[in-house]
Amino acid sequence: MTRVVVVGDLMTDAVARARYPLARASDTPAIVTMHGGGSGANIASWLAVEGAEVAFIGRRGADITGRNRDMELMGYGVDARLVMDPERPTGTCVVLVTHKGERTMLSDPGANAALSPEDLPRDLFAQGGHLHLSGYTLINEGSREAGLAALEMAGRAGMSVSVDCSSSAPLERTGAEPFLEWTQNAKLLFANTDQAKVLTGRDDPAAAAKVLTAWFPQVVVKLNDEGALWYTNNRAEPVRTPAESVERVVDGTGAGDAFTAGFLPAWLEGKPPAEALASGCRLASRAISHLGARPRL
């Protein structure tokens, strides 16, 4: 089995799920819970519980929250390579979830913003492995050098590489051209419909995927409740897979991360794209059925 090395963000998510429509400038009853989060750490956790050999490289604060997040990752079976930051706290994200399951995030990267090339363990970058780089690492100016160094090290080692687009708003602030330039040597790109539009200007996900194959040999676009599509530049039409139905959407936080973790093992094993897409949709359906972005143990 291919070892997957994930470089990315580690967060604590404070999830506030509103019971009713938000009463702006007033009070709305909510359920507030704390969970492990961070896109990179989420992907590593889902990969581990699915049986993959996975290492996660990140940075945490020298606080009890960081220690708890470290122990959680190990509990999932992740080889957690976390550098402890003596000055910055562990990253925190406030996730506002409406009564319909839609989410808005307010993020403080904390220690994530100081991830440096020196934090990357050289022993993890070896031939036969796979690197997945969280887009947040590149978009955050403080950790960008670490992200670029990880891509370079993976290339020198002959590892396959996938990247994701993090989130549409920070991606747009960074700009499509720099992001595409930084990641153009990756073999596989993950984006959702909003992120694909930011990168290409195309509203249609299939059209956006076709444009993106100018930079990436393979592109996956997540279509929310419509499933996902995969496209490569030697095909006339993309491969599409519908989403799995769920009784009730509880929390969409981490659904895209779960999808990535479901897709990657099947893709790395050379299984047909439709099978890899279905595996991704299966994990995404599990993620949206409970509060929090991590798997339930």
UniProtKB/TrEMBL annotation:
GO terms for molecular function: kinase activity. InterPro entries: Carb_kinase_PfkB-like (IPR052700), Carboh/pur_kinase_PfkB_CS (IPR002173), PfkB_dom (IPR011611), Ribokinase-like (IPR029056). Keywords: Kinase, Transferase. Pfam families: PfkB. Residues 1-294 form the Carbohydrate kinase PfkB domain. Coiled coil: none annotated. The keyword Cell membrane does not apply. It comes from the Bacteria. Belongs to the carbohydrate kinase PfkB family. This is Sugar kinase. It comes from Streptosporangium minutum.
